[in-house]
Amino acid sequence: MVTILQGTGLSHDVAIVRDKNSSLELFRNAVKRIGIHLAVEATKLLPGTNSTVTTPLATTEAIRISGSVVVVPVLRAGLGMLDSFLQLIPQALVGYVGMKRDETTLAPFEYYKNLPPSDSNTTFIVIDPMLATGGSMAGTLNSLMELPHSTIICCSLIAAPEGLMAISKGFPNVQLVIGVLDDCLNDQGFIVPGLGDAGDRLFGT
Ligand code: PRP
């Protein structure tokens, strides 16, 4: 269950985030816009309930999002797309998971977790700009799997085939929405051609 986005407007913004000469402001704003593309796609996957609505003229059929939605930005870089998702799903709750990759072993380390209550109708939307080895996403998903939920959607701006495969195989019920699928990982675990380190470029570290 993988969706890879397409479109000229999206590609234009992918070029901006790839460009090593893009300023912090250009980079940050392009990440937000790509976040909107991802959020639109994620909203198509939300469970819905049939209901009715009364307009000024008549009562008609309506579909509403069923259950609560919890957006989970993976710290730090996921914060760069949070506003985009909250613009489209303003009623969403927000849960935070902090994951840091060890630069040598590439193993993720969870340093923070604060998630709102969920129930069997909750949809989690995990957002992280980068899916490299998939270790950070897998660690986050392992935490969410222990909690009651109905649906989990993962959204990444850019992915390596290695990370995509790891999540698809390890979490077959999770729906993945990817902005752009790149060629491979290099020896340091960076996505190639990629965009560098999203967290560093978003926050100037
Ligand atoms: C980066 C990125 C992802 C993760 C992807 O975070 O933002 O969270 O690595 O790599 P993976 O798929 O191999 O786990 P990083 O650990 O650099 O932390 P940061 O967001 O604080 O920069």
Structure description:
The structure is a single chain. The model has no long low-confidence stretch (mean pLDDT 97). By secondary structure, this protein is an alpha/beta fold. The strands form three sheets. Strands 1, 4, 5, 6, 7, 8, 9, 10 and 11 form a nine-stranded mixed beta sheet that branches. Strands 2-3 form a two-stranded antiparallel sheet. It has a two-stranded antiparallel ribbon with strand order 12-13. Helix 2 packs across helix 3. It has a single domain, classed as Rossmann fold (3-Layer(aba) Sandwich), CATH 3.40.50. Helix 4 links the parallel strand 9 and strand 10. The termini are far apart. It contains six helices and 13 strands. The protein is globular, with a radius of gyration of 17 Å. The structure holds 1-O-pyrophosphono-5-O-phosphono-alpha-D-ribofuranose. 1-O-pyrophosphono-5-O-phosphono-alpha-D-ribofuranose (PRP) binds next to strand 6, strand 9, helix 4 and helix 6.
Task: List its traits.
205 residues, alpha/beta, Rossmann fold, 13 strands, globular, binds 1-O-pyrophosphono-5-O-phosphono-alpha-D-ribofuranose
